[in-house]
Amino acid sequence: MNLWGLFLKLSGWKVEITAPKRDKCIICVAPHTSNWDFILGLCAYRSLGRKANFLMKEFWFFFPLGFFIRALGGIPVKKQKGSNLTESIIEKFRIDSYINLAVTPEGTRSRTEIWRTGFLYISYGADVPVQLGVIDYAHKEIRINEEFKPTGNIEKDMTIVKDFYSSYHTAAKFPDKFTL
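RE: above sequence
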Protein backbone atom coordinates (compact mmCIF):
# COMPACT_ATOMS: atom_id res chain seq x y z
CA MET A 1 0.00 0.00 0.00
CA ASN A 2 1.35 3.45 -0.89
CA LEU A 3 1.02 6.67 1.15
CA TRP A 4 -2.05 7.77 -0.81
CA GLY A 5 -3.87 4.56 0.07
CA LEU A 6 -2.63 4.62 3.65
CA PHE A 7 -4.05 8.13 4.13
CA LEU A 8 -7.45 6.98 2.84
CA LYS A 9 -7.43 3.79 4.91
CA LEU A 10 -6.54 5.66 8.11
CA SER A 11 -9.32 8.13 7.30
CA GLY A 12 -11.83 5.29 6.91
CA TRP A 13 -12.30 5.64 3.12
CA LYS A 14 -12.69 2.78 0.64
CA VAL A 15 -11.71 2.95 -3.02
CA GLU A 16 -13.53 1.01 -5.73
CA ILE A 17 -12.26 1.85 -9.19
CA THR A 18 -13.18 -0.82 -11.72
CA ALA A 19 -13.33 1.34 -14.84
CA PRO A 20 -10.56 0.36 -17.23
CA LYS A 21 -7.16 1.99 -16.84
CA ARG A 22 -6.79 4.23 -19.88
CA ASP A 23 -4.01 6.36 -21.29
CA LYS A 24 -6.63 8.92 -22.29
CA CYS A 25 -10.02 9.58 -20.73
CA ILE A 26 -12.12 12.13 -18.93
CA ILE A 27 -13.09 11.43 -15.34
CA CYS A 28 -16.35 13.16 -14.51
CA VAL A 29 -16.72 13.60 -10.74
CA ALA A 30 -19.91 14.66 -8.96
CA PRO A 31 -21.31 15.74 -6.60
CA HIS A 32 -18.73 18.48 -6.05
CA THR A 33 -19.53 20.53 -2.93
CA SER A 34 -16.20 20.73 -1.08
CA ASN A 35 -12.49 21.34 -1.64
CA TRP A 36 -11.96 17.95 0.05
CA ASP A 37 -13.31 16.34 -3.14
CA PHE A 38 -10.03 17.20 -4.89
CA ILE A 39 -7.84 15.76 -2.13
CA LEU A 40 -9.87 12.57 -1.75
CA GLY A 41 -10.14 12.01 -5.49
CA LEU A 42 -6.42 12.56 -5.97
CA CYS A 43 -5.56 10.14 -3.16
CA ALA A 44 -7.96 7.50 -4.51
CA TYR A 45 -6.57 7.61 -8.03
CA ARG A 46 -2.95 7.70 -6.87
CA SER A 47 -3.57 4.84 -4.42
CA LEU A 48 -4.05 2.61 -7.49
CA GLY A 49 -0.92 3.90 -9.19
CA ARG A 50 -2.87 6.07 -11.62
CA LYS A 51 -2.26 9.74 -12.31
CA ALA A 52 -5.14 12.14 -12.88
CA ASN A 53 -4.87 15.54 -14.49
CA PHE A 54 -6.91 18.61 -13.63
CA LEU A 55 -7.35 22.14 -14.94
CA MET A 56 -6.32 25.07 -12.78
CA LYS A 57 -6.04 28.79 -13.37
CA GLU A 58 -2.61 29.73 -14.71
CA PHE A 59 -2.29 32.21 -11.83
CA TRP A 60 -1.44 29.34 -9.42
CA PHE A 61 1.52 28.07 -11.47
CA PHE A 62 4.07 30.53 -10.04
CA PHE A 63 7.47 29.41 -8.74
CA PRO A 64 7.82 27.18 -6.73
CA LEU A 65 4.13 26.20 -6.35
CA GLY A 66 3.85 25.56 -10.10
CA PHE A 67 6.29 22.64 -9.94
CA PHE A 68 4.21 20.99 -7.21
CA ILE A 69 0.90 21.53 -9.03
CA ARG A 70 2.30 20.14 -12.30
CA ALA A 71 3.71 17.12 -10.43
CA LEU A 72 0.21 16.42 -9.11
CA GLY A 73 -1.17 16.54 -12.68
CA GLY A 74 -2.17 20.19 -12.95
CA ILE A 75 -2.68 21.74 -16.37
CA PRO A 76 -2.55 25.57 -16.42
CA VAL A 77 -5.48 27.36 -18.05
CA LYS A 78 -5.08 30.86 -19.43
CA LYS A 79 -8.00 33.18 -18.86
CA GLN A 80 -8.15 35.10 -22.12
CA LYS A 81 -11.08 36.56 -23.93
CA GLY A 82 -11.65 34.84 -27.22
CA SER A 83 -9.64 31.77 -26.31
CA ASN A 84 -11.26 28.40 -26.88
CA LEU A 85 -10.44 26.20 -23.91
CA THR A 86 -12.34 23.22 -25.31
CA GLU A 87 -10.35 23.20 -28.56
CA SER A 88 -7.04 23.66 -26.76
CA ILE A 89 -7.77 20.68 -24.47
CA ILE A 90 -8.84 18.55 -27.45
CA GLU A 91 -5.51 19.44 -29.07
CA LYS A 92 -3.69 18.49 -25.86
CA PHE A 93 -5.38 15.08 -25.98
CA ARG A 94 -4.16 14.67 -29.57
CA ILE A 95 -0.56 15.59 -28.71
CA ASP A 96 0.03 14.07 -25.27
CA SER A 97 0.36 10.32 -24.79
CA TYR A 98 -1.33 10.35 -21.37
CA ILE A 99 -4.19 12.45 -20.02
CA ASN A 100 -6.78 11.31 -17.49
CA LEU A 101 -8.56 14.63 -17.08
CA ALA A 102 -10.71 14.92 -13.95
CA VAL A 103 -13.56 17.43 -14.25
CA THR A 104 -16.49 18.49 -12.12
CA PRO A 105 -19.45 19.23 -14.40
CA GLU A 106 -21.03 21.53 -11.83
CA GLY A 107 -18.06 23.88 -12.24
CA THR A 108 -18.56 25.17 -8.71
CA ARG A 109 -18.92 23.94 -5.15
CA SER A 110 -22.10 26.00 -4.79
CA ARG A 111 -25.56 24.76 -5.67
CA THR A 112 -26.22 25.03 -9.42
CA GLU A 113 -28.71 23.46 -11.79
CA ILE A 114 -26.67 24.38 -14.86
CA TRP A 115 -23.93 21.83 -15.44
CA ARG A 116 -21.06 22.60 -17.79
CA THR A 117 -20.91 20.61 -20.99
CA GLY A 118 -17.32 21.29 -22.08
CA PHE A 119 -16.12 17.89 -20.90
CA LEU A 120 -18.59 16.21 -23.26
CA TYR A 121 -17.40 18.32 -26.20
CA ILE A 122 -13.80 17.48 -25.29
CA SER A 123 -14.54 13.77 -24.94
CA TYR A 124 -16.33 13.64 -28.28
CA GLY A 125 -13.78 15.83 -30.08
CA ALA A 126 -10.78 13.91 -28.70
CA ASP A 127 -12.55 10.54 -29.13
CA VAL A 128 -11.96 9.49 -25.53
CA PRO A 129 -14.38 7.88 -23.06
CA VAL A 130 -15.91 9.52 -20.00
CA GLN A 131 -15.59 7.64 -16.73
CA LEU A 132 -18.16 8.52 -14.08
CA GLY A 133 -16.83 8.94 -10.55
CA VAL A 134 -18.45 9.55 -7.19
CA ILE A 135 -16.98 10.68 -3.89
CA ASP A 136 -19.60 9.34 -1.52
CA TYR A 137 -19.27 10.97 1.91
CA ALA A 138 -22.30 9.12 3.27
CA HIS A 139 -20.58 5.75 2.79
CA LYS A 140 -16.95 6.98 2.74
CA GLU A 141 -16.41 5.40 -0.67
CA ILE A 142 -14.75 6.70 -3.82
CA ARG A 143 -15.97 4.93 -6.96
CA ILE A 144 -15.26 5.06 -10.68
CA ASN A 145 -17.06 2.10 -12.18
CA GLU A 146 -19.03 3.34 -15.18
CA GLU A 147 -17.75 4.47 -18.57
CA PHE A 148 -19.43 5.68 -21.75
CA LYS A 149 -18.55 7.20 -25.11
CA PRO A 150 -20.40 10.43 -25.86
CA THR A 151 -22.42 10.44 -29.07
CA GLY A 152 -21.91 14.10 -29.93
CA ASN A 153 -25.54 14.83 -29.03
CA ILE A 154 -24.68 16.94 -25.98
CA GLU A 155 -28.24 17.07 -24.63
CA LYS A 156 -28.60 13.29 -24.84
CA ASP A 157 -25.12 12.72 -23.38
CA MET A 158 -25.77 15.09 -20.47
CA THR A 159 -29.00 13.21 -19.76
CA ILE A 160 -26.93 10.02 -19.41
CA VAL A 161 -24.57 11.78 -17.00
CA LYS A 162 -27.33 13.33 -14.90
CA ASP A 163 -29.30 10.07 -14.82
CA PHE A 164 -26.21 8.35 -13.43
CA TYR A 165 -25.77 10.95 -10.68
CA SER A 166 -29.48 11.18 -9.83
CA SER A 167 -29.15 8.45 -7.19
CA TYR A 168 -26.25 10.19 -5.45
CA HIS A 169 -28.02 13.23 -3.98
CA THR A 170 -26.96 12.22 -0.44
CA ALA A 171 -23.35 11.40 -1.42
CA ALA A 172 -22.12 15.00 -1.31
CA LYS A 173 -20.25 16.38 1.68
CA PHE A 174 -22.90 19.12 1.68
CA PRO A 175 -26.03 17.51 0.15
CA ASP A 176 -27.97 20.79 0.18
CA LYS A 177 -25.48 22.17 -2.38
CA PHE A 178 -26.05 19.34 -4.89
CA THR A 179 -28.79 19.42 -7.49
CA LEU A 180 -29.30 18.16 -11.01
